[in-house]
Amino acid sequence: MSKIALVLGATGGIGGAVAQRLTASGWTVRAMHRAPDSVAVKHGYDWHTGDAMVFGDVAAAARGVSLIVHAVNPPGYRDWDKLVLPMLDNSIAAARANGAKILFPGTVYNYGPDAFPDIAEDAPQHPTARKGAIRVEMEARLRTYAEAGAGTVLIVRAGDFFGPGSANNWFSQLVPAGKRPAAVSYPGRSGVGHQWAYLPDVAETMVRLIETDGLDPFATFHMDGQWDADGTQMTDAMVRALGDPAIPVRKTPWWMMRLASPLVPTLREVLEMKYLWERPVRLFNGRIERVLGSEPRTPLNDAVRTTLASMGCL
Protein backbone atom coordinates (compact mmCIF):
# COMPACT_ATOMS: atom_id res chain seq x y z
CA MET A 1 0.00 0.00 0.00
CA SER A 2 1.39 3.38 -1.00
CA LYS A 3 1.46 5.72 1.96
CA ILE A 4 -0.30 8.59 0.24
CA ALA A 5 -3.48 9.93 1.86
CA LEU A 6 -5.99 12.59 0.88
CA VAL A 7 -7.42 14.25 3.98
CA LEU A 8 -10.64 16.15 3.35
CA GLY A 9 -11.16 18.55 6.23
CA ALA A 10 -7.48 18.94 7.07
CA THR A 11 -8.04 22.43 8.52
CA GLY A 12 -10.63 21.09 10.96
CA GLY A 13 -10.23 19.39 14.31
CA ILE A 14 -10.28 15.68 13.55
CA GLY A 15 -9.01 16.05 9.97
CA GLY A 16 -6.09 18.16 11.16
CA ALA A 17 -5.22 15.77 13.98
CA VAL A 18 -5.28 12.75 11.65
CA ALA A 19 -3.23 14.58 9.01
CA GLN A 20 -0.55 15.40 11.60
CA ARG A 21 -0.47 11.84 12.89
CA LEU A 22 -0.27 10.39 9.37
CA THR A 23 2.66 12.70 8.58
CA ALA A 24 4.43 11.55 11.74
CA SER A 25 3.96 7.96 10.57
CA GLY A 26 5.63 8.62 7.22
CA TRP A 27 2.57 9.23 5.06
CA THR A 28 2.47 11.83 2.32
CA VAL A 29 -0.62 13.90 3.09
CA ARG A 30 -2.59 15.72 0.44
CA ALA A 31 -5.31 18.19 1.35
CA MET A 32 -7.83 20.30 -0.50
CA HIS A 33 -9.06 23.86 0.03
CA ARG A 34 -10.82 26.48 -2.04
CA ALA A 35 -7.93 28.88 -1.35
CA PRO A 36 -4.94 26.69 -0.44
CA ASP A 37 -2.46 29.57 -0.38
CA SER A 38 -4.24 30.88 2.71
CA VAL A 39 -3.65 27.69 4.72
CA ALA A 40 -0.55 26.02 3.28
CA VAL A 41 1.98 27.89 5.42
CA LYS A 42 0.14 27.16 8.66
CA HIS A 43 -0.69 23.52 8.02
CA GLY A 44 1.89 22.21 5.55
CA TYR A 45 0.87 19.18 3.43
CA ASP A 46 0.48 18.95 -0.35
CA TRP A 47 -2.43 21.29 -1.02
CA HIS A 48 -4.77 21.08 -3.99
CA THR A 49 -7.31 23.69 -5.01
CA GLY A 50 -10.82 22.33 -4.89
CA ASP A 51 -14.22 21.90 -3.30
CA ALA A 52 -15.47 18.69 -1.69
CA MET A 53 -18.81 19.27 -3.43
CA VAL A 54 -17.16 19.02 -6.87
CA PHE A 55 -16.32 15.47 -7.90
CA GLY A 56 -13.69 16.52 -10.44
CA ASP A 57 -11.78 18.37 -7.74
CA VAL A 58 -11.87 15.42 -5.34
CA ALA A 59 -10.93 12.95 -8.08
CA ALA A 60 -7.93 15.03 -9.15
CA ALA A 61 -6.66 15.39 -5.59
CA ALA A 62 -7.19 11.68 -4.91
CA ARG A 63 -5.30 10.36 -7.93
CA GLY A 64 -2.88 7.65 -6.77
CA VAL A 65 -3.83 7.69 -3.08
CA SER A 66 -4.37 4.57 -1.00
CA LEU A 67 -6.39 6.31 1.73
CA ILE A 68 -9.09 8.99 1.78
CA VAL A 69 -9.91 10.51 5.16
CA HIS A 70 -13.43 11.90 4.89
CA ALA A 71 -13.46 14.40 7.77
CA VAL A 72 -15.22 17.28 6.05
CA ASN A 73 -18.51 18.69 7.36
CA PRO A 74 -20.59 21.80 6.67
CA PRO A 75 -19.64 24.57 9.10
CA GLY A 76 -21.92 25.14 12.06
CA TYR A 77 -23.99 22.01 11.38
CA ARG A 78 -25.80 23.91 8.61
CA ASP A 79 -27.33 22.34 5.48
CA TRP A 80 -26.49 18.77 6.42
CA ASP A 81 -29.41 17.47 4.37
CA LYS A 82 -28.11 19.22 1.25
CA LEU A 83 -24.33 18.83 1.53
CA VAL A 84 -23.06 15.83 3.48
CA LEU A 85 -24.31 13.04 1.22
CA PRO A 86 -23.03 14.59 -2.05
CA MET A 87 -19.64 15.21 -0.45
CA LEU A 88 -19.45 11.60 0.75
CA ASP A 89 -20.52 10.28 -2.66
CA ASN A 90 -17.62 12.20 -4.22
CA SER A 91 -15.17 10.63 -1.77
CA ILE A 92 -16.55 7.15 -2.41
CA ALA A 93 -16.31 7.58 -6.18
CA ALA A 94 -12.72 8.88 -5.89
CA ALA A 95 -11.80 5.99 -3.61
CA ARG A 96 -13.35 3.49 -6.04
CA ALA A 97 -11.23 4.89 -8.87
CA ASN A 98 -8.08 4.26 -6.82
CA GLY A 99 -9.07 1.15 -4.86
CA ALA A 100 -8.48 3.25 -1.76
CA LYS A 101 -9.43 2.73 1.87
CA ILE A 102 -11.83 5.26 3.39
CA LEU A 103 -11.44 6.45 6.98
CA PHE A 104 -14.66 7.95 8.32
CA PRO A 105 -15.02 9.56 11.78
CA GLY A 106 -18.33 8.27 13.13
CA THR A 107 -20.69 9.78 15.68
CA VAL A 108 -23.12 8.65 18.35
CA TYR A 109 -25.93 10.35 16.39
CA ASN A 110 -26.61 7.03 14.63
CA TYR A 111 -28.17 5.52 17.73
CA GLY A 112 -31.52 5.94 19.41
CA PRO A 113 -32.79 5.18 22.91
CA ASP A 114 -33.07 1.44 22.15
CA ALA A 115 -29.24 1.30 22.07
CA PHE A 116 -28.62 3.37 25.22
CA PRO A 117 -26.84 3.56 27.61
CA ASP A 118 -23.90 1.27 26.68
CA ILE A 119 -23.47 1.03 22.91
CA ALA A 120 -21.51 -1.82 21.33
CA GLU A 121 -20.24 -1.72 17.75
CA ASP A 122 -23.04 -4.01 16.55
CA ALA A 123 -25.87 -2.12 18.29
CA PRO A 124 -28.94 -1.38 16.13
CA GLN A 125 -29.01 2.05 14.53
CA HIS A 126 -32.47 3.58 15.04
CA PRO A 127 -31.84 7.30 15.44
CA THR A 128 -34.55 9.73 16.47
CA ALA A 129 -32.80 12.90 15.24
CA ARG A 130 -32.63 14.08 11.63
CA LYS A 131 -28.82 14.26 11.62
CA GLY A 132 -28.72 10.72 12.97
CA ALA A 133 -30.78 9.46 10.02
CA ILE A 134 -28.38 11.16 7.63
CA ARG A 135 -25.43 9.56 9.40
CA VAL A 136 -27.03 6.12 9.10
CA GLU A 137 -27.45 6.68 5.36
CA MET A 138 -23.81 7.78 5.05
CA GLU A 139 -22.61 4.58 6.68
CA ALA A 140 -24.95 2.51 4.52
CA ARG A 141 -23.31 3.96 1.41
CA LEU A 142 -19.88 3.23 2.84
CA ARG A 143 -20.90 -0.35 3.58
CA THR A 144 -22.11 -0.78 -0.01
CA TYR A 145 -18.73 0.45 -1.26
CA ALA A 146 -16.85 -2.00 0.95
CA GLU A 147 -19.10 -4.99 0.25
CA ALA A 148 -18.78 -4.41 -3.49
CA GLY A 149 -15.07 -5.17 -3.14
CA ALA A 150 -13.94 -1.82 -4.51
CA GLY A 151 -12.09 -0.88 -1.33
CA THR A 152 -12.26 -1.05 2.44
CA VAL A 153 -13.84 1.24 5.03
CA LEU A 154 -12.75 2.02 8.58
CA ILE A 155 -15.19 3.85 10.87
CA VAL A 156 -14.01 5.03 14.29
CA ARG A 157 -16.74 6.41 16.54
CA ALA A 158 -16.01 8.58 19.57
CA GLY A 159 -17.58 11.02 22.02
CA ASP A 160 -17.51 14.81 21.87
CA PHE A 161 -14.17 16.02 20.51
CA PHE A 162 -11.85 18.40 22.32
CA GLY A 163 -8.20 19.22 21.82
CA PRO A 164 -5.83 21.57 19.98
CA GLY A 165 -7.16 22.85 16.68
CA SER A 166 -10.78 21.95 17.36
CA ALA A 167 -13.03 25.00 17.61
CA ASN A 168 -16.53 23.98 16.56
CA ASN A 169 -17.37 21.61 19.39
CA TRP A 170 -19.04 21.39 22.79
CA PHE A 171 -15.81 22.00 24.72
CA SER A 172 -15.56 25.45 23.14
CA GLN A 173 -19.06 26.18 24.45
CA LEU A 174 -17.94 25.55 28.04
CA VAL A 175 -15.46 28.43 28.01
CA PRO A 176 -14.90 31.27 25.50
CA ALA A 177 -11.70 31.13 23.48
CA GLY A 178 -9.12 33.89 23.52
CA LYS A 179 -9.40 34.98 27.13
CA ARG A 180 -9.30 33.69 30.67
CA PRO A 181 -12.88 32.65 31.51
CA ALA A 182 -14.75 34.09 34.47
CA ALA A 183 -16.94 30.97 34.65
CA VAL A 184 -17.36 27.52 33.14
CA SER A 185 -20.67 26.63 31.51
CA TYR A 186 -21.89 23.02 31.48
CA PRO A 187 -24.83 21.80 29.34
CA GLY A 188 -25.46 18.43 30.99
CA ARG A 189 -27.78 17.43 33.80
CA SER A 190 -26.33 16.97 37.26
CA GLY A 191 -25.24 13.38 37.85
CA VAL A 192 -25.53 12.36 34.18
CA GLY A 193 -22.42 10.90 32.56
CA HIS A 194 -20.97 12.20 29.30
CA GLN A 195 -18.33 10.89 26.89
CA TRP A 196 -15.49 13.02 25.53
CA ALA A 197 -12.70 12.23 23.06
CA TYR A 198 -9.30 13.97 23.02
CA LEU A 199 -8.35 14.59 19.40
CA PRO A 200 -4.71 13.41 19.58
CA ASP A 201 -5.94 10.13 21.12
CA VAL A 202 -8.56 9.75 18.39
CA ALA A 203 -5.97 10.37 15.66
CA GLU A 204 -3.53 7.94 17.28
CA THR A 205 -6.23 5.26 17.40
CA MET A 206 -7.29 5.84 13.81
CA VAL A 207 -3.78 5.67 12.37
CA ARG A 208 -2.92 2.55 14.37
CA LEU A 209 -6.04 0.89 12.99
CA ILE A 210 -5.30 2.07 9.45
CA GLU A 211 -1.92 0.40 9.67
CA THR A 212 -3.33 -2.83 11.15
CA ASP A 213 -3.60 -5.75 8.74
CA GLY A 214 -6.49 -8.18 8.65
CA LEU A 215 -9.40 -5.88 9.51
CA ASP A 216 -12.81 -6.59 8.00
CA PRO A 217 -13.56 -4.79 4.70
CA PHE A 218 -16.15 -2.74 6.60
CA ALA A 219 -14.70 -2.29 10.09
CA THR A 220 -16.26 -0.23 12.86
CA PHE A 221 -14.68 0.64 16.19
CA HIS A 222 -15.87 2.59 19.23
CA MET A 223 -13.60 4.62 21.50
CA ASP A 224 -14.21 4.98 25.20
CA GLY A 225 -12.16 8.17 25.36
CA GLN A 226 -12.71 10.26 28.48
CA TRP A 227 -15.82 9.09 30.33
CA ASP A 228 -17.14 11.69 32.77
CA ALA A 229 -19.32 9.56 35.03
CA ASP A 230 -21.33 12.34 36.64
CA GLY A 231 -20.71 15.47 34.60
CA THR A 232 -18.22 16.99 37.06
CA GLN A 233 -14.88 15.45 36.09
CA MET A 234 -14.46 17.56 32.94
CA THR A 235 -15.40 20.83 34.60
CA ASP A 236 -13.25 20.02 37.66
CA ALA A 237 -10.28 19.43 35.34
CA MET A 238 -10.93 22.78 33.66
CA VAL A 239 -11.05 24.59 37.00
CA ARG A 240 -7.80 22.88 38.07
CA ALA A 241 -6.10 23.90 34.82
CA LEU A 242 -7.24 27.49 35.30
CA GLY A 243 -5.71 27.41 38.76
CA ASP A 244 -8.58 29.10 40.58
CA PRO A 245 -10.96 26.92 42.64
CA ALA A 246 -13.32 29.89 43.01
CA ILE A 247 -14.23 29.87 39.29
CA PRO A 248 -17.95 29.01 39.22
CA VAL A 249 -19.49 26.22 37.11
CA ARG A 250 -22.87 27.28 35.77
CA LYS A 251 -25.58 25.52 33.82
CA THR A 252 -25.77 26.26 30.11
CA PRO A 253 -28.87 28.40 29.48
CA TRP A 254 -30.72 26.14 27.05
CA TRP A 255 -33.75 28.40 27.28
CA MET A 256 -31.77 31.26 25.76
CA MET A 257 -30.67 29.02 22.88
CA ARG A 258 -34.29 28.05 22.30
CA LEU A 259 -35.38 31.68 22.19
CA ALA A 260 -32.61 32.61 19.75
CA SER A 261 -32.88 29.48 17.57
CA PRO A 262 -35.46 30.88 15.10
CA LEU A 263 -32.88 33.50 14.13
CA VAL A 264 -29.71 31.37 14.42
CA PRO A 265 -29.70 28.18 12.30
CA THR A 266 -26.70 26.71 14.16
CA LEU A 267 -28.60 26.84 17.45
CA ARG A 268 -31.50 24.91 15.93
CA GLU A 269 -29.06 22.16 14.97
CA VAL A 270 -27.48 22.16 18.44
CA LEU A 271 -30.87 21.91 20.15
CA GLU A 272 -31.67 18.80 18.12
CA MET A 273 -28.81 16.99 19.90
CA LYS A 274 -29.76 18.15 23.42
CA TYR A 275 -30.97 14.65 24.28
CA LEU A 276 -27.34 13.46 24.42
CA TRP A 277 -26.85 15.64 27.51
CA GLU A 278 -29.97 14.44 29.30
CA ARG A 279 -29.04 10.79 29.85
CA PRO A 280 -25.81 8.75 29.93
CA VAL A 281 -24.76 7.52 26.50
CA ARG A 282 -21.48 5.59 26.34
CA LEU A 283 -19.71 3.90 23.44
CA PHE A 284 -18.19 0.52 24.34
CA ASN A 285 -14.60 0.00 23.08
CA GLY A 286 -14.38 -3.81 23.14
CA ARG A 287 -13.05 -4.17 19.58
CA ILE A 288 -10.30 -1.60 20.06
CA GLU A 289 -9.14 -3.39 23.20
CA ARG A 290 -9.04 -6.70 21.33
CA VAL A 291 -7.26 -5.39 18.22
CA LEU A 292 -4.86 -2.82 19.70
CA GLY A 293 -4.51 -4.28 23.19
CA SER A 294 -5.40 -0.95 24.79
CA GLU A 295 -6.89 2.35 23.75
CA PRO A 296 -4.56 5.39 23.56
CA ARG A 297 -5.62 7.68 26.40
CA THR A 298 -4.00 10.93 27.56
CA PRO A 299 -4.63 11.74 31.24
CA LEU A 300 -7.64 14.05 31.50
CA ASN A 301 -5.79 16.85 33.34
CA ASP A 302 -3.07 16.95 30.67
CA ALA A 303 -5.59 16.86 27.82
CA VAL A 304 -7.70 19.66 29.29
CA ARG A 305 -4.69 21.88 30.05
CA THR A 306 -3.33 21.46 26.51
CA THR A 307 -6.74 22.24 25.03
CA LEU A 308 -7.25 25.37 27.13
CA ALA A 309 -3.75 26.58 26.29
CA SER A 310 -4.43 26.15 22.58
CA MET A 311 -7.62 28.19 22.98
CA GLY A 312 -5.76 31.06 24.65
CA CYS A 313 -7.59 30.56 27.96
CA LEU A 314 -4.60 30.14 30.28
Automatic annotation (TrEMBL):
Coiled-coil annotated spans: none
Gene Ontology molecular-function annotations: aldehyde dehydrogenase (NAD+) activity
A Pfam family assignment: Epimerase
Record-annotated NAD-dependent epimerase/dehydratase domain positions: 5-212
Highest taxon of source: Bacteria
GO CC annotations on file: cytoplasm
InterPro entries reported in the protein's UniProt record: Epimerase_deHydtase, NAD(P)-bd_dom_sf, NAD(P)-dependent_oxidoreduct
Protein name: Nucleoside-diphosphate-sugar epimerase
Source species: Sphingomonas prati
Upper classification of the organism: Bacteria, Pseudomonadati, Pseudomonadota, Alphaproteobacteria, Sphingomonadales
